[in-house]
Amino acid sequence: MKALIFFDINGTIIKRDSRTDIPFQKAIDNLLHAENAMEGVDTSARSDKDVFMEVLRNHRQDFSEAKWEEFMKLYHHQLEKFKDTDVWRDNADVLSFLSKLCDTEHILSLITGELNIGAKYKLEKIGVWQYFKTGGFGEDGLRRYDIAEAALSKAKHIHGSCYDEIYIIGDTILDIKTARHLGAKVISITTGSNTREELAAEKPDYIIDCFSEIKHLFL
Fold this sequence. Notes:
globular, Rossmann fold
């Protein structure tokens, strides 16, 4: 069996906690000349651009491409500033799992609300960026379904349809719904923003606490 496997990033590949989005938060604070500008905004399973637009609305500001470009420069600066710190850490046993997966015929890709540049910095930090030739990112759509459709289209463009099944691995209910939207099987990991009970209520194909629990599927 050859699978096309899409991974979420925060809460799945990267450990999700209060430090995970510090560079993004600081870039927004600097843009708006404010402190804790993102307070009260739920970022889970959303595109960075959608979050950015909500923060602007909360501060009674309109979105513009010029403002977005300014933010991107500030964000790049913060990513560079934090790249050698511990704000991004690998989640569970993902490193050993990915290193073994890359030696198989399976196709690895991403579905994430992260902007491409943020995904690159985070995954380079833990040494796994090179495993992913393509993916759907925050630039590809404001909503998760749009990002997922873009990810699938890119994967097909590069790899064709030479796979037997599609899987999505993520930590949120929205990852489960996204898998259903694409007609994919879904593996929910309990290391993110939704509890095991919340995930189970959506009836994913598998619920795991660590990646070794699914090695029989792919290795």
